[in-house]
Amino acid sequence: MRLVKDIHHLNKLINEVKEKSQIVTTNFFLLPNRINDYIYERRLYFNDDPNSLIFFCEEADFFYLYFFLVDSENQENFSWLNHLQKPVIIDLISNEKSKSPILDSVENYWISNGFKHFRLNRRMAADRTSIKTDANRDNKHSGDPYHVHYAKKIDAPEVLKLWCNNLDRYTAPFPNLDDLAILIQNSQVIGGYNMDNQLAAALQFSQIHHLSTIEYLAVNPDYRRKGFAQLLLNFYFSKSDNIKKFYLWVNEINVPAIRLYKSNGYYFDGKINRQLRYP
């Protein structure tokens, strides 16, 4: 496993594997700014052989694996993955209604090489017009001593602790404290607080133009079923007047979360992510 030196090195590697065949299967769809971050922070590695080019993006708790496969029928030896000392996660994103035989073949390829099914996440979407009107206002439960507002930098350690203790750390990488402080400074983290002003819930979202995605939402177990998640969503929607489309990913077995999101106007849009994990 070798380090990707720069963007020119990355493009050279990809072009070389594409020249080997007219049909190359890949899950490498990273946004340019994310690629640049990985390269700049020296967290993007690669391994190549005659039939594949594999990239590893290192996170705090795991590696993402992105591949270019020339022949997904060819069996290879990936025992060297055992030396990485972190789990390896593969995202296989597709449209549920038009799943291709090629994707089935790729999934079987990785399963036969030691990966296992980890989670099935489904994407939910909401249009501005589908968001429930009553969710655009109330940011406080009448009679309850709870309140919601943008998180402050001082909250960063507690926000990160809340997410680490209540969300799966292998589904998506948590930001480090420095990155979280920047998200808070950019008003992308919303906190829910009890009567003693202690953090009880937190939501983080991203925004690209008129699209917004909820990245993390967690509630302290001691404060669940008290309306905190709804309060966070209410505040989020009330500050998103310029957003035309809302997105989020949810584990298909998380029935309470799915029920909550549907009650706020979200619906499944057909995108699914079948995550694989090694070991």
Question: What features would you describe in this structure?
Answer:
- By secondary structure, the protein is an alpha+beta fold.
- The chain folds into 2 domains: 2-114; 126-272, Aminopeptidase (3-Layer(aba) Sandwich), CATH 3.40.630.30.
- The protein is built from 7 helices and 13 strands.
- The protein has helices at 7-18, 32-40, 101-112, 156-166, 177-185, 228-238, 255-263, and strands spanning 2-3, 25-26, 44-49, 52-58, 63-69, 88-95, 116-127, 147-150, 189-193, 199-208, 211-219, 245-251, 267-278.
- Strands 1, 2, 3, 4, 5, 6, 7, 8, 9, 10, 11, 12 and 13 form a 13-stranded mixed β-sheet that branches.
- Strand 10 and strand 11 (211-219) form a beta hairpin.
- The protein starts with a strand and ends with a strand.
- The model has no long low-confidence stretch (mean pLDDT 93).
Structural class: alpha+beta
Q: Distance between termini?
A: 18 Å
Number of strands: 13
CATH superfamily of the largest domain: Gcn5-related N-acetyltransferase (GNAT)
The CATH architecture of the largest domain comes to: 3-Layer(aba) Sandwich
And the CATH topology of the largest domain?
Aminopeptidase
What's the structural domain tally? 2
Determine the number of helices (DSSP H or I, runs of at least 4 residues). 7
Shape: globular
What level of helicity do the residues show? 25-40%
Query: What's the rounded overall pLDDT mean?
Result: 93
**Rg, alpha carbons:** 21 Å
Overall CATH class of the largest domain? Alpha Beta
Q: Give me the strand/helix succession.
A: EHEHEEEEHEEHHEEEHEHE
Strand content: 25-35%
State the low-pLDDT regions, or none.
Answer: none
Largest sheet at a glance?
A: 13 strands, mixed
